[in-house]
Amino acid sequence: MIKRRKQKIGFYRKTKESNCELIFIFDEIQRIRAQGTDKNWAKKSYIKKLTTLEKKAFRKILTMLKEKKLKTPDDFYRASFIFHHGPSFRYYMIAVALAAISNHLGEPRGKNIYAVAIDRLLLSLGLPQHFGSQYIKKNGKWQLDKYDPKTTDKERVEYTIEPLTTLKKHAREMYKTTVWTYSSKGQ
């Protein structure tokens, strides 16, 4: 019998002080998201399972914050990552704040999740995104959502977002892919 190694998905940094319950919640959500193909996203049952789990996670994280149970840079990173997938402005605001704390405490990927959350926040207000981290599907093809053309690639790189030409190339290639993948680099 061949033993298969479990594929690691997403973010694995932790310390002895990291919140184990948050790690479990994060990993569970990321496992479900990593299974997300275009077919899965078209199923109401898949979306319901994920949104139900995320709603519970949002409530739990807010409780953890009130109880001061988030302490490490990676705790704030995980919490921000979960909130940036929220459904509205309120969730993006929380994600931005958590990402800023994560970055301030020294999480190397804190700047990236901050940039992604800022872009989602701006788009939710009907404004162009700053960094260009968000895509939209129109007429069956993915494209970069509206973005501020004044943002420089130097700014993007500072927040670990790829240059604009690379982002646009990703958009052209995304329609060929049906499986969303998560890696330890970027979102």
How is this structure best described in words?
- The chain is mainly alpha-helical and 187 residues long.
- It has one domain.
- The protein is 55% helix and 4% strand.
- The protein has helices at residues 20-34, 38-41, 44-66, 73-84, 89-104, 110-124, 153-158, 164-174; strands at residues 135-138, 141-144.
- It has a two-stranded antiparallel sheet.
- β1 and β2 (141-144) form a beta hairpin.
- α5 (89-104) runs antiparallel to α6 (110-124).
- The chain is globular and about 45 Å long.
Mean pLDDT: 87
What best-fitting shape do the alpha-carbon axes yield?
globular
Order of helices and strands: HHHHHHEEHH
Give the C-alpha Rg: 17 Å
- Order of strands across the main sheet: 1-2
Helix content range: 40-55%
Task: Please state the structural category.
Answer: mainly alpha
Total DSSP helices = 8
Domain count: 1
Concise summary:
By secondary structure, this protein is mainly α.
Topology of helices and strands:
Blueprint: H1 20-34, H2 38-41, H3 44-66, H4 73-84, H5 89-104, H6 110-124, E1 135-138, E2 141-144, H7 153-158, H8 164-174
Antiparallel strand pairs: 1-2
Helix pairs in contact: 1-3, 1-4, 4-5, 4-6, 5-6
Write out key terms for the chains shown.
single chain, 187 residues, mainly alpha, two-stranded antiparallel ribbon, disordered N terminus, disordered C terminus
